[in-house]
Amino acid sequence: MKKIRITSFLFLIAFVFFLSFTLFTNHTCAKGKKYVKSLNVTNAVSLKAGEKIEVPVKVKVVNKASKKISYNVKDSGIAKVSFNNKTSKLTINGLQSGQTVLVIKTKAKNKKGKKLSRKVKITVDDASSNVSNTTEKYTFRKPQYLTEHYAKHGESMGYKNEAEYLAGANAVINNPSALHKLEAEDNDHVYYIESTNEIVFLSQDGFIRTYFICSGKAYFDRQ
């Protein structure tokens, strides 16, 4: 009986050791595994033929997995796309009016061994289209926001009242010479006129966030 107990005890110790070793090995392997955690990009962009915009792409990885992506435009006659690995931004050039889809894929795989992919709908409008017929007059989300931003920026910009300040913001948005990009943080639209340093931030759902005179093009580039 004593011999059986000793044998059982030794077996139990061996089993516990084996189980601990297995769990440690699996944890170590999982801890060192390289994989893609997420891929984030806006799902739609709009621009005019001849216009160029930048779209940030955010790839989160674990254990220094590759952040490289591949991309393909279904109709390359409507838009031309390039990607800058240093800035992690897509540059989309509108070629002619129409709609197409940009498909983006990670080159590395996720935990399940699959590549992540996202689709971006690209709409290109005719460069000669009348802005007043294709867009509405933009305003702030709430009247109090207009009042606050006019007091903060509008008066120092020389506008006599809130209506003039709002009209100035719309003039920047609808100015064909204004530079346009998507903000890296939340993909809102940014419009900038280099000659005056006027800049307008417009939300994806069509509300003005703010309008002011910025320090220069370097400020626009950082957005």
Describe what you observe in this structure:
- This protein has three domains: 1-32; 35-125, Immunoglobulin-like; 131-222, Nuclear Transport Factor 2, Chain: A, CATH 3.10.450.
- The chain has helices at residues 2-32, 131-134, 143-154, 162-173, 217-222, and strands at 35-40, 44-48, 52-56, 58-62, 69-73, 79-84, 89-94, 98-109, 115-125, 139-140, 179-182, 189-193, 198-202, 207-213.
- The strands form four sheets. Strands 10-14-13-12-11 form a five-stranded mixed sheet, covered by helices on one side.
- By secondary structure, it is α+β, with helices and mostly antiparallel strands.
- The longest helix has 31 residues, at 2-32.
Top-tier CATH class of the largest domain: Alpha Beta
CATH architecture of the largest domain: Roll
Radius of gyration: 27 Å
Largest sheet: 5 strands, mixed
The share of residues in extended strands comes to 35-45%
Poorly predicted residue ranges: 130-134
Mean pLDDT: 83
Strand/helix succession: HEEEEEEEEEHEHHEEEEH
Q: Looking at CATH, which topology of the largest domain would you report?
A: Nuclear Transport Factor 2, Chain: A
So how many helices? 5
How are the strands of the largest sheet arranged? 10-14-13-12-11
- The 3D shape can be described as globular
Number of strands: 14
Helix content: 25-40%
